[in-house]
Amino acid sequence: MKKPISKVCAIIVAAGASRRMNGVDKVFAPLGGKPVLAWSVSAFQQCPSVDQIIIVVSRGNLEKARQLVIRNMWTKVTQVCAGGKRRQDSVTAGLAEIVDCEWVIVHDGARPFVTAEMLEQGLKTAKETGAAVAAVPVTDTIKVAGEDMLVRETPSRNSLWAAQTPQVFRHDIITEAYRRATGDVTDDASLVEQAGYRVKLYTGSYDNIKITTPGDLVLAEVLSNKYAG
Predict the structure, then answer these.
(1) Which CATH superfamily is 8-227 part of?
(2) What's the rounded Cα separation, in Å, for the pair 81 and 107?
(3) What is the pLDDT of residue 141?
(4) Is 55 exposed, middle or buried (CB count within 10 Å of its CB: 0-12, 13-18, 19+)?
(5) Which range among 17-26, 81-90, 128-137, 190-199 shows the weakest confidence by mean pLDDT?
(6) Contact call for residues 74 and 51 (beta carbons, < 8 A)
(7) At what angle do helices 36-46 and 62-72 cross, to 10 degrees?
(8) b vs e for 189-227, b when ≥16 Cβ sit within 10 Å of the residue's Cβ?
(9) How many helices (H) and strands (E) does the chain have?
(10) Helix (H, G, I), strand (E, B) or coil at 144
(11) Is the pLDDT of residue 69 over 70?
(12) Strand pairing partners for 53?
């Protein structure tokens, strides 16, 4: 088998159904004068360490996404492809389009405020174990409860982190993890953990929000002033 060359490919996953957005397609919703998706793709386009970008959208958004690539002259985008019903199906579709890359960065297109610095730190951290995840310390007190809503446990916040994307993996690790995947998952790193690999956290950002509800979009509009330019 041909060994991948030491290049970095980014898979930007933007094929979700936006079920909690009251009919608004979140990745094409306007944010600071441009679609939400444009924020994250631009960050990857501008990052010197990223060689290739694959955008995964719903089948109905393929042409819209391709026109967005043309208008913004994103030269690193090599493919716009259709995702699946589940997030993991969309990542699998993106993985199938990779050519000769050693490192894979998976990022949610609904997280517009990823930065080049975050990407570089993720790549640096991933080289230690083969897998790295952006995360921030949990600030709320977490309660573990049963179906009866009675508290079973209050874990210490000292060891709790909220996982984000980008998540960075060596190509062979993430492809093996997806090949062995069973059941539904919402986090790529969890599959890698299940496959027996070590995953290291690196510091993300509290600004690195995921737009899931209309309220998130309102907050993102406020944050966009900080990241515009």
Answers:
(1) Spore Coat Polysaccharide Biosynthesis Protein SpsA; Chain A (3.90.550.10)
(2) 15
(3) 94
(4) buried
(5) 17-26
(6) no
(7) 50
(8) bebbeebebebbbbebeebbbebbeeebbeebeebbeeb
(9) 7, 11
(10) strand
(11) yes
(12) 10, 77
Question: What single string gives the DSSP state of each residue in 158-184?
Answer: GG-EEEEEEEEEEHHHHHHHHHT--S-
Q: Which residue has the tokens 């030269």?
A: 75
Spell out the domain ranges in the chain: 8-227
The answer to whether the peptide bond before residue 166 is cis (omega within 30 degrees of 0) is: yes
Tokens 């690193």 belong to: 76
Nearest to 202 by CA among 128, 122, 138, 129: 122
Q: What is the mean pLDDT of residues 38-53?
A: 97
174: tokens are 């993430």
How far is Cα 86 from Cα 92, in angstroms, rounded to an integer? 10
Amino acid in position 211: I
Q: In the block, which residue shows the tokens 């640096």?
A: 124
* pLDDT tens digits for range 191-229: 999 999 999 999 999 999 999 999 999 999 999 998 876
For the purposes of burial, counting CB atoms within 10 Å of the CB of 117, is it exposed (0-12), middle (13-18) or buried (19 or more)? Answer: exposed
Average pLDDT over residues 134-145: 95
What is residue 142's predicted lDDT score, i.e. its pLDDT?
94
Tokens of 52: 């290739």
> Residue 25: is its pLDDT beyond 90?
no
Q: Is the pLDDT score of 4 beyond 60?
A: no
Encoded tokens for 178 = 């997806």
Q: What is the reported pLDDT for 22?
A: 64
